[in-house]
Design goal:
Layout: H1 2-34, E1 54-57, E2 60-63, H2 67-82, H3 84-108, H4 114-122, H5 142-147, H6 162-180, H7 183-192, H8 194-203, H9 216-233, E3 253-258, H10 265-270, H11 276-282, E4 299-304
Antiparallel strand pairs: 1-2, 3-4
C-alpha cells in the first residue's frame, strides 16, 4: 500500500511538471496563430443602430434617405446609444419632468416634441449650467431669460424654475415660429439664435435649417433632437433596459405662497419638517439661504411631502410604459 501510494505521488508530480512545460508552449503557439486571426480584446460587441428611412417631428414627416440627412442621424443615434450613463439618466429623469412639461407645451400651443429639445439642452438635469452660463432645463442665458419674463439675479433665478422656464421657452419658440413657419428651423434658432439662422437662410438661399451649412454644433443640434426622440420611443432597442424602480418619481408638493422676506430658509424648511437641502432641491430657483422680497412680490414655494421623500421605488408611477421592461 505504501509503495502504491508513493507511486501515485510520483505520477502526479510528473503530470504537474508536464503541464507547466506544455501550457506556456501552447499559449505561445496560440498567440502566434492569433496574429493571423485577430479577435476582440473586450468581452462585448458594438453594433451600429439602424437608421430609419423617415422620422417625424412636430407633426411633419422627415425623410432620412438623403445621404447627408441619413449620416447626420446615424451619428446622433450612435452617440446616444453609446453615451450610456448620460442617456440612461436622461430617461430616468424624464419620468419626473415630462409630466410637468407636457401639459404646459399643450396649453401654450407648442408641439409636444419640443420636450426633446429640453432633453438635449440639459440632459434633464435641473441644475445644469453651461460654460456660456446658460442654466436650467431649458438652458437660458441671463439676457434671454429676462427678455422672456424670468427673474434672474443672485437671490432668485427662475431659469431653474421648471414651470416658469418652460413657459418662457414656449414664448420664445412661438416667436420664432411666427418668423420661420417651420418647427425644425425654430429648433435650430434655439441653439444658434434667430439672427444667425435668418442670416444663413438669406445667404444660402434656403428655406429651412436642415438645408443649411452651419457650424457643427448647430448642424448636429436638429438631429440630436430627432435621435433622442427615437431612443425614447423604445429604449430597450438601443440597449437601455430599465425597470419601474429605476425611474425617478415625481415628489408630491404643496404650494405655499410667500409675499414677504424669508430671512432664513433653513428655519422656514423646519416649519414643514424638511431640511434646507430638501426645500432647495424642490425649489432650485432659490439661490441663497434667504429670500429677499422688499417689493412684496408673491412667490410660490413648493413644499415636498416629507413622507413621499421616503418613496418605495417599486411603486413608482411610469409615465411611458415603453421606457421600462417590466
Amino acid at each position: 500500500m505504501k509503495i502504491s501510494f508513493n507511486f501515485r505521488r510520483v505520477l502526479s508530480y510528473l503530470a504537474l511538471v508536464s503541464i507547466c512545460i506544455c501550457v506556456p508552449f501552447c499559449m505561445s503557439y496560440e498567440m502566434q496563430d492569433e496574429a493571423h486571426f485577430p479577435k476582440s480584446e473586450v468581452p462585448y460587441c458594438v453594433a451600429s443602430p439602424s437608421v430609419p428611412s423617415q422620422t417625424d417631428f412636430a407633426g411633419e414627416t422627415i425623410s432620412l434617405t438623403r445621404a447627408d440627412m441619413r449620416e447626420r442621424m446615424d451619428r446622433e443615434l450612435s452617440a446616444f446609444t453609446y453615451m450610456h450613463s448620460t442617456t440612461m439618466l436622461t430617461i430616468k429623469r424624464a419620468n419626473r419632468f415630462f409630466p410637468v412639461v407636457e401639459p404646459i407645451l399643450k396649453e401654450e400651443g407648442v408641439p409636444d416634441d419640443f420636450k426633446y429639445l429640453m432633453a438635449i439642452e440639459s440632459n434633464l438635469d435641473i441644475l445644469a449650467r453651461s460654460p456660456a452660463r446658460a442654466a436650467g432645463l431649458w438652458q437660458f442665458v441671463e439676457g434671454t431669460g429676462r427678455d422672456y419674463g424670468l427673474e434672474v439675479n443672485a437671490n432668485v433665478d427662475e431659469r431653474y424654475h421648471v414651470e416658469k422656464a418652460t413657459r418662457a421657452a414656449c414664448r420664445y419658440l412661438k416667436d420664432a415660429y411666427g418668423k420661420y413657419g417651420d418647427w425644425l428651423t425654430v429648433a435650430a434658432s434655439y441653439n444658434a439664435g434667430q439672427g444667425r439662422i435668418s442670416q444663413e437662410l438669406r445667404r444660402q438661399q434656403a428655406e429651412r435649417a436642415t438645408d443649411l451649412w452651419l457650424v457643427p454644433e448647430t448642424s448636429r443640434y436638429i438631429f440630436r433632437i430627432l435621435a433622442v426622440k427615437e431612443v425614447f420611443k423604445n429604449p430597450s432597442r438601443y440597449g437601455f433596459l430599465l425597470r419601474r424602480e429605476n425611474l425617478y418619481p415625481m415628489i408630491p408638493c404643496k404650494e405655499v405662497k410667500v409675499d414677504s422676506t424669508i430671512t432664513n430658509i433653513a428655519s422656514f424648511a423646519k416649519q414643514y419638517g424638511l431640511t434646507a437641502s430638501q426645500l432647495k432641491e424642490a425649489n432650485p430657483w432659490l439661490r441663497e439661504y434667504s429670500l429677499h422680497n422688499k417689493g412684496r412680490k408673491v412667490y410660490i414655494i413648493s413644499v415636498p411631502d416629507s413622507a413621499a421623500l421616503h418613496y418605495n421605488p417599486k411603486q413608482t408611477f411610469v409615465h411611458r410604459k415603453e421606457w421600462v421592461i417590466d
